[in-house]
Specification:
Radius of gyration: 25 Å
CATH topology of the largest domain: Beta-galactosidase, Chain A, domain 5
Number of helices: 4
Shape: globular
Distance between the termini: 53 Å
Number of domains: 2
Largest sheet: 15 strands, mixed
Number of strands: 33
Structural class: mainly beta
CATH class of the largest domain: Mainly Beta
Strand content: 35-45%
Amino acid sequence: MTSLFHLLALSLGATLAMEASAEPAAEQGLFERVTDRAERLADAPYEAPDADLPPALTELDYDAYRQIRFRPDRAVWHDDGLFEVQLFHPGFLYDQPVALNLVDGDGEVSALTFDPSRFRYDDEAAGLADLDPEALGDLGYAGFRLHYPLNSGDYRDEFMVFLGASYFRMVGRDQGYGLSSRGLAIDTGAPRGEEFPAFREFWLVEPGPDDTHLTVYALLDSPSLSGAYRFEIAPGEPTTVETEARLFAREDVAKLGIAPLTSMYMHGGLGEYPADDYRPRVHDSSGLAMQTGDGERIWRPLSNPATLHLSSLQDASPRGFGLIQRPRQFEAYLDAEARYETRPSEWVTPLGDWGQGRVELVEIPSDSEANDNITAYWIPEQPLEAGQSRTFRYRLSTLGATPPEQRLAHVLRSRQGWGATPGQDDPPPESQRVFIVDFQGPTLDGLEADQAVEPHLTTSSGELIEPRVQRLPDGTWRASFRLAPEDGTPADMRLALTLHGEPLTETWNYVWYPDERR
């Protein structure tokens, strides 16, 4: 049975092909037509795509799937310009292929149909014996990856990949893949379960021979809404993606997560974790950073909690937020394979006023670094109701240890432990914690130890004891204090260093939970 989704796809593909031939690409209004497609989808009942992949593909395990390899010499645009596109074969976990279209320099749209000759099927013993590539038909592709001479002039590095639901990942110069972006998050952490929107179709606009940026359009669909996306992609240092998302609600959306970032955190910071591991740190991101609408810089260290934690940073018209990987030295991780020090940080810069809302952080218990357990996104104060539409524009940027244009000193490390003094005759209960927070950066450089640097320290509950600031021998500045919790109540703590009332550092913000001891 042909679904409404497929009928619309055929109709739009034919319309785009006819109209593109009649007018230049710059004038054809491709994004408007993808937007119209998304709006029409939202006006109709949701129909899940029927991939109908053969069992020989859906039953592949990880090792067998990896034996299907793309042939680099068959990449799209391989012989033209700076960019090329390589493709992912459907199968294994990727059982819902996407439709891909190419838009050439004259504005003509053509479908990129599945072609088994683009792949090598390497090892029949690995599970491919029952697979006849020539009999697969037009399956579509699982996704695609973009290549560009990012690190050297004579090799096209893979720098961005779209694969699975609405996930995509990107790196800047000298970085390795880590955290992921998503097109949208719906009801993340909600009791009724999360909804995962998915990109169903892409249009890749062929760049000119000397172009250093690339445009990709995408159609997103899910039970609650549909959307049209435009990605203006510029690889480099940093790699940036200017994004416009036009959303159309089919149903009421209780929790709409804009510009979601997804990452992994196992151990290496404040939260206790019983790691039998030679590596002092294991994480793709170590903290959530935010710049509020009034300019305050906030740093919230991540944790691998014993139970699900959801926390929020309320704001109006935020200037940006992101998941950041600190530190950036090999010695901090000692992992010669994963190379966690090269994992990218990613920053979201709103383009336009996003109004009232909050950045929500979700931290999920995990016992494997193979699982993503961290998510952060913006939730608008006004919910998206059935029949409504909304547009969000923002820029995604890769970066290193600190967000763009930050001059305030940043948090170098945070630690906690039992708040007892060695040899103390009458030690406090183990619930009393001592915290140290070390800061480093240009606003602290050159300050002598006798400067009147003070801690600005608050907590939502409990008692803060003996706050102290000192300059360490290497020029780092340390704040330390003890927390006496209040009847096991979570304590939302904030700390910044000031000089004569002016901030010298970003604001360290951490929520201590009673379940951190496990």
